[in-house]
Amino acid sequence: MIPVDSADAVLAGRLLLDDGPTPVLIRDGRVEVVSRQAPTVSDLLEQDISAVRGEHLFDLDALFSAEWKRFLSPFDLQVIKAAGVTFAISAIERVIEERARGDYRAAASIREKVEAAIGGAIRSLVPGSEAADRLKATLIEDGLWSQYLEVAIGPDAEIFTKTAPLASVGWGAEIGVRSDSSWNNPEPEVVLAVNSRGEIRGATLGNDVNLRDFEGRSALLLSKAKDNNASCAIGPFIRLFDDKFTLDDVRTAVVELDIEGEDGFTLKGRSLMSEISRDPEELVRQARSEHHYPDGFALFLGTLFAPTDDRDEPGRGFTHKIGDVVSISTPKIGALVNRVTTSKAAPPWKFGVRDLMRNLASRGLLETEVQ
């Protein structure tokens, strides 16, 4: 659940304690409550972490005890953004979804044709380069151009809002897919923590649950495909950047995925960040754009993983079943584990910004002078 080198790591996150959602720092084998100096994680990421002094809650070993409540997503007031189609293989799969009109039964026959036409050509391209422009012209002439290829190799990345502040769930929570979706999958990703100044303060893991049938029918259904109750899991903690963990560790990370179904089905996958087509700093720059996020934002960086293994019938490929356990891990960040249910059956999202403000006020934390 925590980094393999946890003794050298500084982690930030949120725990649901008796008083309410509480920001914590984990360092030197101790879990510290920091809400007096930083009522929210958004506040915490604005500060010099070395100057933050928390109150000892318990030692790290006690973190895994079942005696207290649960882990929350490590983000609170931040908007949850995501970059899409940042790997060549994901671009190919999006084109397949588009041409299949979201029908999984047509995907297998289309996949071979699309892969043969564009697979090798886009894998080594730099987005927005002259070579990318030449390929675009060729594909348009051949009638093979797609809106997904535009964001895969064009100058502008796909950046969308995955979900609202406080809507993401944490480690151990149920994660939801729409009950009316018949073709969907997890998306194991690295998620960056960015403060109001556009500084990348650390990284964690996320599951950008995707409904392939909805988005495949129309890209205008992206919001319905992406933003649903319990459809965004992040955690367990943000590993903050320091001399032991930097953005270069993100650039070289290997993100592992394991799915175990109640039907005995298992699936393993991996996403190699070294194969991303746009550098994480460039994705942050495009996500921030000309806008200012006063509470900062989280940014999913996209995934190389696109499951094509047949689960039930030949040619159908993969889709989730209720009860699937999804584990996303990388050694220097830890592991995010969630069990799949439907968005309808998952606990409803009821605790919003108003509730958080009322809770912090009742605890006298809004009077804190945040540095």
Automatic annotation (TrEMBL):
Pfam family, any one: FAA_hydrolase
Fumarylacetoacetase-like C-terminal domain location: 150-340
Recorded coiled-coil stretches: none
Keyword entries, A-Z: Hydrolase, Metal-binding
GO molecular function: hydrolase activity
Keyword Hydrolase attached: yes
Record has Hydrolase as a keyword: yes
Family: Belongs to the FAH family.
Name of the protein in its database record: Fumarylacetoacetate hydrolase family protein
Organism per entry: Sphingomonas telluris
